[in-house]
Amino acid sequence: MKALVSAIALTAIVFFATACGPAAGAEPARRVNVLMIAIDDLNDWVGCLGGHGEKAVTGKNTLWERSTRVPLVFAGPGAARGARCARPAELLDIYPTLVELCGLPAKEGLEGHSLAPQLADAKAPRPWPAITTHNQGNHTVRSERWRYIRYADGSEELYDHQADPNEWTNLARDPKFADVVREHARWLPKTDVAPAPGSAQRVLVKVNGVWTWEGKPIDPAEKEE
Known about the structure:
Among the domains are: about 1-70, no CATH class; about 85-125, no CATH class. It contains six helices and nine strands; from the N terminus they run αβααβααββββαβββ. The chain has helices at about 1-25, 45, 65-70, 95-100, 115-120, 180-185; strands spanning about 35-40, 70-75, 130-135, 140, 145-150, 155-160, 205, 210-215, 215.
């Protein structure tokens, strides 16, 4: 499986490099005014068949770092060559970024924010964290240093990526980090709707006080061996 994933990832890289080559590397007189974007969902959870199996969870069905990160690459007008930005970003930011770089009229009501300032200068400040949701009530807020998670049952996790990049130590209950928790919690989504009717695939919901996974009630007494 790991070899297959590596082959797919390399194929995607070669395709992107081939597509970018003529546009970015052509002579100035023949250079094409094209902006290339590469996104990939093959993060390291797939490659190691679970990644965070050390936390007794397999698959990408979590809100931890390895499950919520994907490569995002821009090349072309408006993007500094060879730069790497550490600011948090969401895939929702792609559309407003394209709108700005293409000189199109801005659209109100978008949840994402243009990445154009960071594409021009990787050190440009960015006030927004990156937010990821997996099922109703389960959200994570990722700032440059911290990852904060709140689950539908009210439990919380907080990880310091400067000291704990593998997210082993949950600091959410430590009083010393109460201000950090509050600061990140204010970014939790205000709109938190239920899944569409009939949804079942990887859906965790509470029905009449009982937690159900993919339509089946969860029995707290049952434990995986």
